[in-house]
Design goal:
Cofactor: Mg(2+)
Number of strands: 6
Largest sheet: 6 strands, parallel
Strand content: 5-15%
Family: Belongs to the UPP synthase family.
Protein name: Isoprenyl transferase
Strand order of the largest sheet: 3-4-2-1-5-6
InterPro entries: UPP_synth-like (IPR001441), UPP_synth-like_CS (IPR018520), UPP_synth-like_sf (IPR036424)
Bound molecules: farnesyl diphosphate
Subunit structure: Homodimer.
Helix content: 25-40%
Distance between the termini: 40 Å
């Protein structure tokens, strides 16, 4: 069973760019995929840390629309890791009351993986604890382009008037339409960029760039970042108190 969410000033929705698997493996003289496997094991620990940190939504960047440019060996290894991960972890997520969703462009993914993603969403559809969203073949610009295509179709079909296209209606077409915007975006491995992650949704997010490589990122560091978030003064463009 999932633990009740703690009442904190922490972020409700944390999004993470899990970076540094390759460097972590290289530092150990191992192939990059070794780092990705170690990175996958970290995910569970961070998901389990969410209730105590007051985090209700966790969104993780697992594979970007740009990651296809990596070697065929690395891409195939990652796809195989995602398939095995879903098969292995889903029962545990159901038990822990974690609701799993995927965002990103699915048609380019292989049929077996797509089937497992559908199955994971179906199996955890009733779960009411942490909401884990896995971004797989995801790119912020690609998401906005796909959303715009669907929106344009609705306008062409007379279901939406052009005057009604605004900041309220457009996000309904995004992959994230059922999620709140992220409050805090964390990127590991010392890189300070957002790499096409949740571009629309993160307009007012707070950012934390930490040096830790993703396979070394701990529940303690996650909790500390969520705690520090509670001390920030978010003004959303208004004047401070
Ligand atoms: C970035 O590190 C990481 C990725 C592109 C893959 C992320 C995947 C995982 C953390 C593991 C699997 C996740 C799930 C949900 C099963 P990098 O390879 O760019 O590292 P580098 O910058 O050091 O080369």
């Amino acid at each position: 069973m999932s633990r009740p969410l703690r009442e904190t000033d922490g972020p409700c929705h944390v999004a993470i760019i899990m970076d540094g698997n390759g460097r972590w493996a290289t530092q150990k003289g191992r192939p990059r995929l070794f780092g990705h496997h170690a990175g996958a094991r970290r995910v569970r620990e961070i998901v389990e840390a969410c209730p105590d940190a007051g985090v209700k939504y966790l969104t993780i960047f697992a594979f970007s629309t740009e990651n296809w440019k990596r070697t065929q060996v690395e891409v195939a290894g990652l796809m195989s890791l995602f398939r095995r991960y879903i098969m292995k972890e889903m029962q545990a997520f159901v038990k822990e009351n974690v609701r799993v969703r995927f965002i990103g462009d699915r048609p380019r993914l292989d049929a077996k993986l797509r089937g497992l993603m559908d199955e994971a969403e179906r199996m955890t559809g009733h779960c009411t604890g942490t909401n884990l969203t896995i971004a797989l073949n995801y790119g912020g610009r690609d998401e906005v382009a796909r959303a715009t295509q669907r929106l344009a179709q609705d306008v062409a079909d007379g279901k939406l008037h052009p005057d009604d296209v605004n900041e309220e209606t457009l996000p309904r077409y995004l992959d994230t339409h059922v999620l709140p915007d992220p409050d805090l975006v964390i990127r590991t491995s010392g890189e300070a960029r957002i790499s096409n992650f949740l571009l629309w949704q993160s307009a007012y997010a707070e950012y934390e760039f930490v040096d830790t490589l993703w396979p070394d990122f701990s529940a303690e560091e996650f909790a500390a970042l969520c705690g520090a978030y509670g001390k920030r003064d978010r003004r959303f463009g208004a004047v401070g108190r």
